[in-house]
Design brief:
This protein is an alpha/beta fold. The protein is 26% helix and 22% strand. It starts with 6 loop residues before the first strand and ends with a helix. It has two domains: 8-149, 60s Ribosomal Protein L30, Chain: A; 178-296, Fe-S hydro-lyase, tartrate dehydratase beta-type, catalytic domain (fumarase, Alpha-Beta Barrel). Helix 6 links the parallel strand 7 and strand 8 (199-203).
Length: 300
């Protein structure tokens, strides 16, 4: 319940890949927040889908700092305007300092290197105990999906959809330096000729699944049930994506990749017991998964 006759609503459709990379620390009052962020960001890998935004909450208590960080991500991207006019207070100066430090790390889009790792840095602060400095860092991926509206009893909120012409035109013409692969006919020998950094255009049948599906497969194999009827991973690729309902007259729903790292603990099983050839996802693979791939030599 809130006072007055209106309710202000703020909604963020935030991805788990970025939310799972949240970091929290209790610094000493004399510690440098920007320095902590600079050291911490490289440890977060690429699962938060850079380039994106960083929401930073400072002060209050541990839980208050987390709320401040999340609230800051609801603000509009305006770092370029801030750069042009210069900071008016300590919070704005900290934003610019972190923005500069993080982009100089060279992490880049999806962790593949580049000049832009963050497109904005947001900071919200609150008073705190003189002996404490709680700090929470919450990243947001490149898809900054949020909406604000007010309900005042006069009727439903009218939300205008974005204009498609505001997005760049998508083309399938990517030049000659690409490898076109039909996943219905590709062999393990073909895969061995692929090179790191190549652009690969895939066609054919791809199986999908994420943690829940892998866990269920693991339980079925352990129980001696085998794979579900009709499911055959031999020579196939799996795409780490969860099921999403189709919208309107679409054939399939949204199919954005989920963080590959969460499937690392299932890699041995999938490569050794199902005949899987390849895995498609986003972010880095952990040391155990990389070792499985190297050892079993059945997948890239």
């Amino acid at each position: 319940m809130v006072p007055g006759d209106a309710v202000d609503i703020q909604i963020a459709a935030k991805g788990g890949g970025s939310e799972n990379k949240t970091k929290m620390v209790m610094l000493n009052p004399s510690d440098d927040v920007a320095e902590w962020v600079e050291k911490t960001l490289p440890t977060m890998g690429a699962g938060w889908c850079p380039p994106g935004m960083l929401g930073i909450g400072i002060g209050g208590t541990a839980e208050k700092a987390a709320v401040l960080a999340k609230e800051s991500l609801m603000e509009h991207i305006d770092i370029q305007a801030l750069i042009e006019r210069g900071p008016d207070n300590a919070d704005e100066a900290l934003r610019l300092d972190i923005f500069d430090r993080v982009n100089k790390l060279g992490i880049g889009a999806q962790g593949l290197g580049g000049l832009t790792t963050v497109v904005d840095v947001k900071v919200k602060t609150a008073p705190t105990h003189a002996a404490s400095k709680p700090v929470c860092l919450i990243p947001n991926c490149a898809a900054t999906r949020h909406v604000h509206f007010t309900l005042d009893g006069s009727g439903p909120a009218e939300l205008a959809p974005p204009k498609l012409e505001e997005w760049p035109q998508v083309t399938w013409e990517v030049g000659d330096n690409v490898r076109r692969v039909n996943l219905d006919t590709v062999t393990k020998e073909d895969v061995q000729s692929w090179k790191t950094g190549e652009t690969v255009l895939l066609s054919g049948k791809i199986l999908t699944g994420r943690d829940a599906a892998h866990k269920r497969l693991q339980e079925m194999l352990r129980n001696g049930e085998g794979l579900p009827e009709g499911v055959d991973f031999n020579g196939r690729f799996i795409y780490y994506v969860g099921p999403v309902d189709a919208v309107g007259d679409e054939v399939v729903g949204p199919a954005g990749p989920t963080t590959s790292t969460r499937m690392d603990k299932f890699t041995d099983m999938m490569l050794a017991e199902t005949g899987l050839t390849g895995m498609i996802g986003k972010a880095e693979r952990g040391p155990a998964a990389v070792e499985s791939i190297k050892t079993i030599k059945r997948c890239i």
